[in-house]
Amino acid sequence: MKAEISPNSLTLRSSSFLKRHIHLLVIIASSLLFYLTISMIDLDFYRAFADLGSHMYVFERVLMGDVPYRDLWQNDTPGLFYAGAIALKLFGMNLYSMKLLLALVLTLSTAILFLIAKKIMPVPFAMAVAFVSVLWGNLILNIPYGGWFSNCFGLLALLAFLEYQETMKNNTLLLLLCGAALGMAFTFRQHIGLFYLIAVALLVAIAVLFFENWQVEAKPRSGYFKLLVFLSYAVLFVISAVLMPLVFLRRTMATTEGLSIKNFLVFFLPVFAFNLLIIMIFLRRIERDDTTTDYRRLFMLLLKREAGLGIGFLVPILPWYIHFSTIIGWKTFFQIITITHPEQQSFQQGYFQALRLPSLSAHSVLLAAVMCALCGAVILLLIFSGSRRMLCASIIAVASLLVMSYLMFFPLDSGFVPMYYLPVALEAVLFPIIYRRMYFQGDLLNEKEAAGILAIAVYGAFSYLSLIILVDRYHYQMLIFPWLAAAGYLLYIVHHKSSCSFRNAGYLGKTRQLAILTAASLPLLLLVVGKPLAIVMDQYQSNKAYSKSAFPAGGNVVFGKMEIERGGIYINAAFLEDIETVVSYLRENAAQGDYLFGGPAINMFNFLTGMPFPSRHRYFIFDAVSSRQQYEMAAALIEKKPKYYIYDHYYDTNPDPVIALEFFRQFPPIGEYVSSNYTFDYKIGRFYLYKRKDALKPSM
C-alpha cells in the first residue's frame, strides 16, 4: 500500500526549502530583475555597434545553416556561435534576444558566486559580494562575448571543487562535474577555459598532497618538492633578471608587442606573489615535516583524481572537436583552437597595432616598483613575525597604496589602470593570511576555510593571467568575480578583528579600530564599487557629447526604442533615427538577395536588414585585416557585386563623402575596386551610402 503524502507535509517541505535557500532566492530574483532592466537600455550602443553587430550577424548565419570557419570567420570557439543561434531561435530574431540570454547567464554567475562566497564568510558578506558583482556584470556594452559564458562555467567548476575539497571523499562525480564545467568554459573561450583547467588541476594536486583527510601526506624533503622549490626560484629569477629589465627598456614602445608597465602590473606581479607562496609552503614543510609517506599510493591517488577531472573536461569538447575536424580538417581546426591559425594571428597583430595603446608615464614605473617591493615586504614580514599586528599593518599599507594609485591614475585615463591593482593587492594580503593560519596558531580561520580561500586565490590568479591573450577593461570585468569574493573575505576578516575588540575598548581604542576598518575598506570600495559606476558615468558623458554634436540645440541624453523589426532595445536617440532611416532605405531600395558591403565594421546593418555580407571575412575596422583576407574579399566583391556600400564616419575626423570612399585605400586589393565601381548616393547622419555605378538609373 502506497504511503499518502498529506498537503501539510508538502507545505512543511516547501517552507523548509524556502528557509534554507531564502538568501539564494533573493540574490537570483534581485539580480535577474536588475539585469533584465539594464539589458533593455544600451548605454554604449555607438561603440557596441561594431562588435554587437558582428556577433549578431554571425549568429543569424549559423542559425541559417552556415558552418563557422568555413562559411564565415570569427575569432571565437563554437560554443558562442550555437548559444547565440539558439537564443535567436528561442527568443526571436532581434537584438534583445542575445541580451536576454546574457541576463540569464549573468544571473546564474551571480548566484554561483554567492554560493562560493558563503563557504568562506558569513551570509551578509556573501550577499554583499553578490550584489557588488552585479555592478561589474556586463553593465555597459551588453555584447555577447564568450568570456561571460566562460566565467559562468568557470565559477561552477570552482564551486564543484570547493564541494569536493570540503568532503575529501572518493567523490569522482564532483570532479567529473568540475571537469565538464571547465570543458564548457573552454568551449566558449578557449584560453580562459585552459587557464581555469590549469588552476583547478593544481588545486586538485594541492588537495591530495596537503589536505587529504586534512593531514599532511607528502614528505617535503623528497626530490619532488625540492624540484618544485627550484622551479619557483627559477621563475622568480626570470621575472627579476629578464622580464623586469625588458619592461623598463621597452616601456616607451607604442604597441603591445613590447612589454609595458601595465603588462608588468597585470601579469608578472601575481606570478611573483604566487611563487613566493609556493616557496614559503615547501620551505616551511622541509623544516617541520619528517613523516613518511607511501609515494606509490599518493601518486595513484593523484593520478585518479586528475584523470577524473580530465575525463570530465573532454566530455563537452570532443563532440564538437570531432564534428569540425571532419568538416575543415583536424589540423586546421586544432590551429584555430590553439590560436595559432595564420588568420587569427594576422587579426590580432593588426588589431593591436590599430589600437596604438600608449605605455604608461615615468611615475607609473616608480609606482610599479613600490608595489612590487610592498608585496614582497608584506609577505616576508608575515613569514618571520608571529605578531598579528602585522596583518593590520599590511592591510593599511596596501590600502594606502591603492588610494595613492587611484588618485595618481584617475586624472590620466579615467581610472583604467587602477582596477588592475585589486587582484595584486589582495594577493599581497591574502596569501600571508593563509600562510599564517596554516603554519602558526591563530584564530582568524580554520584549516578548511584557509583551504577555501587558497583555492579562490589560486583560481583568481590564473584567471587573471588569462588576460595575457587579450587585455582590456571588458575582459577584466569578466574575470573579476573570484577577486570580488576575495575582497569580501578580506573585509570580513578586518571587520571581525575590529568588532571583537571594539566593545571593550575605550574611546581612543574605538576610534583607532574605526580608522583601521575605514582605511582597509574605503580603497576596496573605490575600486570594487566606484570603478563600474565611473565607467557608467564616462559612457553617459560620451553619449551626452555625441548628442550635443548631433543636436546643437541641446546635449541632453534621450533614449528611444528601436521600433524596427529586429531592434527591440533602447539606444541614444541622437543616432537612433539615423539607424532606422538607413534600414528603411535599404529595405525599400534593395532587392531580395542583394549583398551589403561597407566599413568600418557595419555588420549591424547586415543583421538589421537581413542582407548578407559578400565575404566570410566581414570585420573591417582600421587595418586589422591580413593581405590574404583582402584578396579573398576582393574576389568576393567581383563575384557577388553588392549593390550598396555603406560607410560609418563616426571614426573619421574629416567626414567628407569623397574621403570616406577612400577608406578602403588602406586595403589595396579592395580600395581600387570600391573607388572604381561605387559613387556617393545618400547621406543619413553619420552614415554615407554609396551605390554601384551600374545600378544607377539612367538620367532622362
Automatic annotation (TrEMBL):
Transmembrane segments: 21-41, 96-116, 123-141, 147-164, 171-188, 194-211, 223-244, 264-286, 307-324, 365-384, 391-412, 418-438, 450-470, 476-494, 514-537
Keywords, ordered alphabetically: Membrane, Transmembrane, Transmembrane helix
Secretion signal span: none
Entry superkingdom: Bacteria
Protein name stated in the entry: Glycosyltransferase RgtA/B/C/D-like domain-containing protein
Species of origin: Abyssobacteria bacterium (strain SURF_5)
